[in-house]
Design a protein that fits this description.
This protein is mainly alpha-helical. It has one domain: Four Helix Bundle (Hemerythrin (Met), subunit A) (Up-down Bundle). The protein contains nine helices and no strands. The longest helix is centred in the first third of the chain and has 26 residues.
Protein backbone atom coordinates (compact mmCIF):
# COMPACT_ATOMS: atom_id res chain seq x y z
CA UNK A 1 0.00 0.00 0.00
CA UNK A 2 1.40 3.38 -0.96
CA UNK A 3 0.52 6.75 0.54
CA UNK A 4 0.74 10.08 -1.17
CA UNK A 5 2.59 13.14 0.10
CA UNK A 6 -0.50 14.70 1.77
CA UNK A 7 -1.27 11.49 3.66
CA UNK A 8 2.36 11.26 4.74
CA UNK A 9 2.30 14.86 5.99
CA UNK A 10 -0.91 14.22 7.97
CA UNK A 11 0.61 11.06 9.46
CA UNK A 12 3.68 13.03 10.52
CA UNK A 13 1.45 15.64 12.16
CA UNK A 14 -0.46 12.93 14.06
CA UNK A 15 2.79 11.40 15.29
CA UNK A 16 4.08 14.82 16.36
CA UNK A 17 0.87 15.54 18.25
CA UNK A 18 1.08 12.22 20.03
CA UNK A 19 4.45 13.11 21.52
CA UNK A 20 3.74 16.77 22.20
CA UNK A 21 3.94 17.46 25.91
CA UNK A 22 1.37 19.57 27.66
CA UNK A 23 2.58 22.40 29.81
CA UNK A 24 2.81 21.33 33.41
CA UNK A 25 1.46 23.43 36.22
CA UNK A 26 3.97 25.86 37.68
CA UNK A 27 5.00 25.30 41.28
CA UNK A 28 4.16 28.96 41.82
CA UNK A 29 0.49 28.15 41.22
CA UNK A 30 0.48 26.94 44.85
CA UNK A 31 0.46 30.63 45.81
CA UNK A 32 -2.56 31.73 43.75
CA UNK A 33 -2.95 35.08 45.50
CA UNK A 34 0.48 36.09 44.26
CA UNK A 35 0.75 34.12 41.00
CA UNK A 36 -2.67 35.16 39.69
CA UNK A 37 -2.54 38.75 40.93
CA UNK A 38 -2.93 41.47 38.27
CA UNK A 39 0.72 42.52 38.65
CA UNK A 40 1.92 38.92 38.24
CA UNK A 41 -0.28 38.41 35.17
CA UNK A 42 1.17 41.57 33.59
CA UNK A 43 4.71 40.46 34.41
CA UNK A 44 4.18 36.97 32.96
CA UNK A 45 2.55 38.44 29.85
CA UNK A 46 5.57 40.73 29.39
CA UNK A 47 8.05 37.86 29.87
CA UNK A 48 6.24 35.88 27.14
CA UNK A 49 6.22 38.85 24.75
CA UNK A 50 8.63 39.43 21.86
CA UNK A 51 9.56 42.74 23.50
CA UNK A 52 11.19 40.87 26.39
CA UNK A 53 13.15 38.72 23.94
CA UNK A 54 14.28 41.85 22.05
CA UNK A 55 15.50 43.37 25.31
CA UNK A 56 17.48 40.20 26.09
CA UNK A 57 19.00 40.17 22.58
CA UNK A 58 19.97 43.84 23.02
CA UNK A 59 21.63 43.01 26.37
CA UNK A 60 23.49 40.14 24.71
CA UNK A 61 24.78 42.46 21.97
CA UNK A 62 25.90 45.08 24.50
CA UNK A 63 27.57 42.29 26.48
CA UNK A 64 29.37 41.15 23.31
CA UNK A 65 30.75 44.65 22.81
CA UNK A 66 31.79 44.77 26.48
CA UNK A 67 33.61 41.43 26.15
CA UNK A 68 35.44 42.62 23.03
CA UNK A 69 36.49 45.87 24.72
CA UNK A 70 37.52 44.10 27.94
CA UNK A 71 39.50 41.45 26.05
CA UNK A 72 41.27 44.09 23.95
CA UNK A 73 42.21 46.01 27.08
CA UNK A 74 43.32 42.78 28.77
CA UNK A 75 45.64 41.92 25.87
CA UNK A 76 47.09 45.43 26.11
CA UNK A 77 47.41 44.98 29.91
CA UNK A 78 45.40 48.20 30.32
CA UNK A 79 44.07 48.96 33.80
CA UNK A 80 40.76 50.16 32.29
CA UNK A 81 39.80 46.49 31.87
CA UNK A 82 38.77 46.46 35.55
CA UNK A 83 35.72 48.61 34.76
CA UNK A 84 34.69 46.20 31.99
CA UNK A 85 35.19 43.19 34.27
CA UNK A 86 32.75 44.82 36.71
CA UNK A 87 30.34 45.34 33.80
CA UNK A 88 30.58 41.60 33.12
CA UNK A 89 29.40 40.99 36.69
CA UNK A 90 26.35 43.17 36.03
CA UNK A 91 25.58 41.22 32.86
CA UNK A 92 25.83 37.99 34.84
CA UNK A 93 23.22 39.29 37.30
CA UNK A 94 20.97 40.37 34.42
CA UNK A 95 21.11 36.84 33.01
CA UNK A 96 20.30 35.39 36.44
CA UNK A 97 17.29 37.72 36.68
CA UNK A 98 16.17 36.72 33.17
CA UNK A 99 16.41 33.05 34.14
CA UNK A 100 14.46 33.57 37.37
CA UNK A 101 11.73 35.51 35.55
CA UNK A 102 11.37 32.77 32.94
CA UNK A 103 11.22 30.04 35.59
CA UNK A 104 8.56 32.06 37.40
CA UNK A 105 6.59 32.60 34.19
CA UNK A 106 6.81 29.14 32.64
CA UNK A 107 7.46 26.93 35.68
CA UNK A 108 10.57 24.81 36.16
CA UNK A 109 9.55 21.84 34.01
CA UNK A 110 8.29 23.94 31.09
CA UNK A 111 11.37 26.19 31.29
CA UNK A 112 13.70 23.18 31.22
CA UNK A 113 11.94 21.62 28.20
CA UNK A 114 13.49 24.22 25.87
CA UNK A 115 17.10 23.43 24.90
CA UNK A 116 17.96 27.15 24.69
CA UNK A 117 16.87 27.58 28.29
CA UNK A 118 18.96 24.59 29.35
CA UNK A 119 22.01 26.20 27.74
CA UNK A 120 21.23 29.57 29.35
CA UNK A 121 20.77 27.89 32.73
CA UNK A 122 24.15 26.14 32.55
CA UNK A 123 25.97 29.29 31.43
CA UNK A 124 24.23 31.42 34.07
CA UNK A 125 25.09 28.92 36.81
CA UNK A 126 28.71 28.86 35.64
CA UNK A 127 28.83 32.66 35.74
CA UNK A 128 27.31 32.62 39.24
CA UNK A 129 29.84 30.07 40.52
CA UNK A 130 32.63 32.03 38.89
CA UNK A 131 31.52 35.33 40.45
CA UNK A 132 31.07 33.81 43.91
CA UNK A 133 34.48 32.12 43.67
CA UNK A 134 36.11 35.38 42.60
CA UNK A 135 34.35 37.23 45.42
CA UNK A 136 35.35 34.69 48.09
CA UNK A 137 38.89 34.02 46.79
CA UNK A 138 39.89 37.01 44.65
CA UNK A 139 43.53 35.90 44.46
CA UNK A 140 43.30 32.21 45.30
CA UNK A 141 41.66 30.78 42.17
CA UNK A 142 42.84 33.08 39.42
CA UNK A 143 42.34 30.44 36.72
CA UNK A 144 38.58 31.03 37.08
CA UNK A 145 38.58 34.80 36.95
CA UNK A 146 36.02 36.05 34.41
CA UNK A 147 36.19 32.81 32.42
CA UNK A 148 38.95 34.34 30.30
CA UNK A 149 41.48 32.08 28.77
CA UNK A 150 45.06 32.61 29.83
CA UNK A 151 46.88 34.37 27.04
CA UNK A 152 50.50 33.38 26.57
CA UNK A 153 52.63 36.45 27.11
CA UNK A 154 56.05 34.82 27.32
CA UNK A 155 56.14 35.30 31.10
CA UNK A 156 53.21 33.09 32.14
CA UNK A 157 54.07 29.72 30.64
CA UNK A 158 52.97 27.65 33.66
CA UNK A 159 49.48 29.17 33.82
CA UNK A 160 49.09 29.01 30.05
CA UNK A 161 50.30 25.38 29.92
CA UNK A 162 47.84 24.38 32.66
CA UNK A 163 44.85 25.98 30.91
CA UNK A 164 45.93 24.65 27.51
CA UNK A 165 46.34 21.10 28.80
CA UNK A 166 43.00 21.32 30.64
CA UNK A 167 41.25 22.46 27.46
CA UNK A 168 42.87 19.91 25.14
CA UNK A 169 42.29 17.09 27.65
CA UNK A 170 38.64 18.11 27.91
CA UNK A 171 38.36 17.70 24.14
CA UNK A 172 39.97 14.23 24.51
CA UNK A 173 42.88 15.29 22.31
CA UNK A 174 45.81 15.34 24.77
CA UNK A 175 47.00 11.96 23.49
CA UNK A 176 47.77 13.59 20.15
CA UNK A 177 49.95 16.20 21.91
CA UNK A 178 51.95 13.85 24.14
CA UNK A 179 52.15 11.11 21.49
CA UNK A 180 50.26 8.42 23.43
CA UNK A 181 47.46 8.48 20.82
CA UNK A 182 49.02 8.93 17.38
CA UNK A 183 46.99 10.46 14.59
CA UNK A 184 45.20 7.88 12.41
CA UNK A 185 46.85 7.10 9.10
CA UNK A 186 43.95 5.33 7.37
CA UNK A 187 41.45 7.63 5.66
CA UNK A 188 38.48 5.70 7.05
CA UNK A 189 39.56 6.38 10.65
CA UNK A 190 40.09 10.14 10.17
CA UNK A 191 36.39 10.91 10.67
CA UNK A 192 36.15 8.94 13.93
Amino acid sequence: MEINLDEFARLCNVIALKFEEKDSQSIFEKCPNIYHSPASKKLRHFIRSPTFEYIIVFILLVNLVAVIVETTLDVQNNSAQIFWQKAETIFGWLYAIEMALKVYTYGCENYWRDGKNQFDFCITCFIGIEEITTLVCPHGLTFMSNGNCVRFTGKNYSAWEFKFQLFVTGKELWGHIDGSDPAPIELTKLGQ
